Amino acid sequence: MVLLALAATAIVAIALLSDLIVPRMDELWRQMRARRKKVPTFLYDPGRERRAEQRARALLRSCVNDEEWAMYRDLGFIRVWGSQADGPHEGGGTGGAPYAYLIYPHRPIVAYLAQTHRLLGEYCVAFPDETRPYGSARLPDSDDALAKWMALTADERRLIATANMHLPGRQLDPDQVRRDLWRLSQWERRRMREAADGSPATGPRATG
Amino acid sequence: MKPGHGELLIAEGDIEVAEDEERLVEEFRQQLDAGLWAAVPVADPQGRRESLMVRSFEEIPRDAERVIFFPRAAGGH
After folding, report:
1. What is the Cα–Cα distance from A66 to A145, expressed in whole angstroms?
2. pLDDT, tens digit, for every residue of A135-169?
3. Domain ranges of chain B
4. A49: nearest CA in chain B?
5. What is the pLDDT of residues B22-48, one digit of tens each?
6. Interface of chain B against chain A, CB under 8 Å?
7. Does A135 sit within 8 Å of B5, measured CB to CB?
8. Count of A-B CB contacts under 8 Å
9. d(CA B4, CA A47)
10. A38 vs A21: CA distance, rounded Å
């Protein structure tokens, strides 16, 4: 009789606790299955990435002109002159003043006025390859720069319309960009001087 | 252009050879169908380099040495 009472009590207790126990058991079961599930992992291979970047640099060099290649090699960015009559975007007119873009790999494109170096905006654009053939959707640095260069020189309006436009300073430090513009002007002066002297243009090399 | 690899040769051939042209057209279409953009690097008589985006095989200059395919641009963050 006592045994029967204990058994009944146990059944009632289990029934009452089932609301707490069952979800917990279910959660543990799912966690165990998730741990056992084989997820494809793509290990970062520095050798592969380095070879990819070397190929990308060779391709970039074969597409841009000598000055643009030297600029990228020495300074780490490429300047592309803007071709729209009134600036890169509607509402931000340049009044016909010449403007240009700085192309950095995997960073926003920066538009600026050529004479005053006033920054006009940052254009965030990406070239994601969702097929992820080697585990990453990210192009090598020089391929990213080349993709921007090709898209910008072929159809500036289309690329700028595709990009997300932000005011200067959102991602890139404006002081850093102004320093880059100063470095660019120094670099151009040195090249002109060396061209006049007939000596080869050399300078600090970008790594990569 | 491929992430983690860089430049990959997809196809090559002589545009004046009918079989080659057919194969190049087929590869071109496949790349565009896969969502890639196609560009031809060109130089003007002054030596200025630029790029020409092409949306069909017929738009490729007959004397083009290569067509570069790269992922379509999207707004970044």
Report:
1. 15
2. 677 899 999 999 999 999 999 999 999 999 999 99
3. 18-71
4. B4
5. 999 999 999 999 999 999 999 888 878
6. 1-7, 34, 37, 39, 41, 43, 47-53, 68, 70-77
7. no
8. 128
9. 10
10. 28
Q: Are A14 and A101 in contact (CB under 8 A)?
A: no
Verify whether the Cβ–Cβ distance B76 to A124 is below 8 Å: yes
Interface probe, candidates B31, B33, B48, B49, chain A, greatest A C-beta count within 10 A = B49
Closest-CA distance of chain B to residue A167, Å: 13
What is the 3-state secondary structure of chain B? Answer: CECCCECCCCCCCCCCCHHHHHHHHHHHHHHHHCCEEEEEEEECCCCCEEEEEECCHHHCCCCCCCCEEEECCEECC
Phi-psi label, residue B75: left if phi above 0, alpha if psi -120 to 50, beta otherwise: beta
Partners of residue B7 in chain A, C-beta under 8 Å: 55-56, 58-59, 143
